[in-house]
Design goal:
This protein is α+β, with helices and mostly antiparallel strands. Helix 1 packs antiparallel against helix 3 and helix 1 packs parallel to helix 4. The protein has a domain of 150 residues: Butyryl-CoA Dehydrogenase, subunit A, domain 3 (Up-down Bundle). The relative contact order is 0.10. The two termini are 34 Å apart.
């Protein structure tokens, strides 16, 4: 972690401590954004940090943004933070210029019915916070290329829904809707960026779950001693620590270079780590962990919600496998050791 990233982490942790608590998490399940949290984020330039300096940002890297989102995941911070940060970068890269306020972002395979700036019979699934944002951005695949579509939330018919964490994920439909459209480069590159940033959130939440489980095991007494002194509990916590250490190593490497192979590896390994964090932390806590009044609940439910965002675990394992399919015996190990950065044939 470089000096800038250390500063970013200290800044976001201070903001989170001051503005995100149990009340904000409860309000999010009633479709209310934590306004104080996002107001401070905007004021400190965090939502626009990925923008180039000449468009109002600081030209931060995706690795810098991952530091922010890892801390946000640990705090279970609700709202479209990732979506807004990456959407601003998408707008700048597409030549459309930054937008005001918060933004929602979804990826789709194609946009049938799109003719020019008019999209007929449009459907979007699982749109985060669709009624609390200024714009909804859609990244649509067209071959290997991506098309960015910018729409007004008021133009959609909304069927409210929610994810496992209780945050809004809506179904949007429109017989016809006007969109601003622009080319935005390579689809897979943008999907990798979104997936890597979500990986940082997942990691932060899993790390928090481990820390709290260790603390709880040293506090909770059963049969006259702390449950953390029982070998079975120690073994469970050691297993979870191993999962998270392995996942953290790969996520950090992926955030440094954003190579598709490393991102696929990170999301694949995080799938196992998230499953372990959910199962083991609740085993350690017992019934207490399932209570909505207890903080563990807000982290593990987000792990459930985020685990398959921007590509499922199965999707990323297939992407990872394709990097090495067909390699000769002599080429396979060098390719693995090089993390797929150079894959000889």
């Amino acid at each position: 972690m470089n000096e800038n990233q250390t500063f970013f982490r200290a800044t976001i942790e201070r903001i989170l401590a001051d503005t995100v608590g149990k009340a904000e998490l409860d309000h999010a399940e009633e479709r209310q954004l934590p306004e104080a949290f996002f107001s401070v984020l905007v004021e400190n330039g965090i939502t626009s940090m990925l923008l180039p300096e000449d468009t109002g940002g600081i030209g931060a890297s995706l690795g810098d943004a991952a530091i922010i989102l890892r801390a946000a995941g640990a705090a279970a911070a609700p709202g479209p933070l990732l979506e807004t940060m990456l959407a601003q970068k998408l707008l700048a890269s597409s030549g459309l210029g930054p937008a005001q306020g918060l933004l929602s972002l979804v990826f789709i395979n194609e946009a049938p019915g799109l003719v020019g700036s008019r999209w007929s019979d449009a459907v979007l699934h699982d749109v985060p916070w669709s009624q609390a944002v200024e714009k909804i951005l859609i990244v649509s695949r067209s071959g290997n290329e991506a098309r960015l579509l910018v729409s007004d939330p008021a133009g959609w018919t909304t069927e409210p829904g929610m994810d496992a964490a209780g945050e809004p994920r809506d179904l949007l439909t429109a017989e016809a809707i006007d969109v601003t459209s622009a080319n935005c480069g390579d689809y897979d590159s943008w999907l990798c960026a979104a997936s890597m940033l979500r990986a940082a959130q997942i990691l932060g939440s899993a790390e928090w779950s481990l820390r709290r489980s260790i603390e709880y095991a040293s506090e909770r007494k059963q049969f006259g001693r702390e449950i953390g002194k029982f070998q079975a509990v120690q073994q469970m916590l050691a297993e979870l620590a191993g999962h998270i250490l392995a996942a953290a190593t790969i996520v950090e490497a992926a955030a440094d270079d954003c190579h598709p192979t490393m991102i696929a590896a990170a999301r694949s390994r995080l799938g196992d780590a998230a499953d372990a964090a959910i199962a083991i932390s609740h085993q350690v806590h017992g019934a207490l962990g399932f209570s909505q009044e207890y903080a563990l609940n807000s982290r593990t439910r987000r792990l459930m919600a985020w685990r398959d965002d921007f590509g499922s675990v199965l999707y990323w394992r297939r992407v990872l496998a394709r990097q090495f399919t067909g390699l000769s015996r002599e080429a396979f190990w060098p390719a693995i050791a090089d993390a797929g950065a150079t894959v000889p044939r």
